Amino acid sequence: MSDYIERHDCVAEIITELPGSGNIPQFCFPLSQKYGRYELMVKFSPVNGERDWIGMFDSYGYGHSGIYTLPHVSNLLVIAKGSGYLVDVDSPQKTHIWEPIFPIQGCIVIRDQMLVVLHDYTSILAFDPGGEKWRIKDLVSTDLKVLESSDKLLRGEASLNGRDARFTVMLRQVNMKQSKSIK
Fold first, then answer.
1. Burial class for 37, CB neighbours closer than 10 Å (0-12, 13-18, 19+)
2. How far apart are CA 164 and CA 150, in angstroms?
3. Torsion sign, CA atoms 161, 101, 154, 79
4. Is the pLDDT at 180 greater than 60, yes or no?
5. Cis (ω within 30 of 0) for the bond into 103?
6. SS3 string of 34-103?
7. Residues 141-161: pLDDT tens digits?
8. Distances (CA, A) of 140 to 81, 153, 175
């Protein structure tokens, strides 16, 4: 998980409480929700002169949280306890839920291949600039964890029919499937 991201166009940082002073705009996500329980708060500081703002992200699940830069889109990916959001730092109103799998239990960005790899408890899914590149559904019974990643492979462990199992996914050999693009 990353608590702090610095890019050419912004800085994003997970915060645990709202600033006591200042007049920083706050946006609740999903946008239809105005009050409630928020699992994650992130302060965004665009470098283009726009004002800082705070995103308050709700979750419909449990599990993984973090902020990720994506190698092929200008948005940031915020994961709040398993719920994914694509954040437009310059236009917070364009931020939207992005959950190609749910709950998101892990995210790995493999820059050499321009891949974003997400996983839940049983499946792994990869996106590239063209959209969904491949998906391995029901790889294991439960508790999938990616322990190691490189530009060539993913290694992990999980439970398969009640037994501990290890797996390796060779990234260049996975069947390719075009589908939805990240927007």
1. exposed
2. 23
3. negative
4. no
5. yes
6. CCCCCCEEEEEEECCCCCCEEEEECCCCCCCCEEEECCCCCCEEEEECCEEEEECCCCHHHCEECCCCCC
7. 889 999 999 989 999 999 888
8. 21, 17, 18
- Residue 182 DSSP one-character state: P
* Structure tokens belonging to residue 173: 């050999």
What's the maximum distance between 2 C-alpha atoms anywhere in the chain? 54
Answer whether 28's CB lies under 8 Å from 37's CB.
no
Q: Once rounded to an integer, what is the mean pLDDT over residues 72-91?
A: 88
Mean pLDDT of 115-127: 92
Bridge-based pairing state of the strands 142-149 and 153-160:
antiparallel
pTM of the model: 0.85
Among the listed residues 93, 95, 59, the one whose alpha carbon sits nearest the alpha carbon of residue 79: 59
- The reported pLDDT for the residue numbered 168 is 92
Judge whether 5 and 68 are in contact, CB under 8 Å. Answer: yes
